[in-house]
Amino acid sequence: MCIVEARGVTKTYGSGETCVEAVRGVDLQVKKGEFLAIMGRSGSGKSTLLSILGGIETPSTGNVLLEGIDLASLRDDARTMMRRRRIGFVFQLFNLVPILTALENVALPLELDGVSTHTARERASAMLDVVNLSARKNHMPGMMSGGEQQRVAVARALVIGPAIVLADEPTGNLDSANGERLMTLFRRLVDEEQQTLVMVTHDSAVADQADRVVHLRDGLVLDGHFHAAGDHKSDQR
Hints:
Layout: E1 2-13, E2 20-31, E3 35-39, H1 46-53, E4 61-66, E5 69-70, H2 76-86, E6 87-90, H3 102-112, H4 117-130, H5 146-158, E7 164-168, H6 176-193, E8 197-201, H7 204-207, E9 212-217, E10 220-226, H8 232-236
Parallel strand pairs: 3-8, 3-9, 6-7, 7-8
Antiparallel strand pairs: 1-2, 1-4, 4-5, 9-10
Helix pairs in contact: 3-4, 3-5, 4-5, 5-6
């Protein structure tokens, strides 16, 4: 089953001499339970492509289908609702609310969608257990390490039960040990929970954990190949 598909996607900013073609005719499919890494140098278009896949930006031309629904065809409010309910986001800088506890941060997307505080916090607590942070649920972000904050961000992305998680340089602000822990968590979520994950990274060691790697240069896909990490599923089952 294809969770997200890009068909002939382009993204252009500006016009005339200031025109920048950030993404140029990308075709891409991501299947359920797949861990895809998108690699490329700074300015290659990888973060722009991730934003388009997540419905944050609309393509200049082409289509993005999430579970068969064309995001560009939706009105802004419907696209916002789709993002809120079907897409989990993980960012390099965590983007946690500093005045909320870990539990409150994870519960927030559910409460914003109308779920009762009690139910939202029950589900948030269960998700913090999944990322091994139950003991830190009442801590503020400033009381946690970078690795712990990023795991809270992962729990927040997962608590809605998303069709897909999009992660933009999620290890970029972590030391190597915490980066490895995060990648182990991602690998487990894909292998054991069949979570679909697309991750942008410039780090080849991080990309090595993915099932498939796509390389971007100047907004174009150079290649996409399965690599050794694709054997993780069979190794662990």
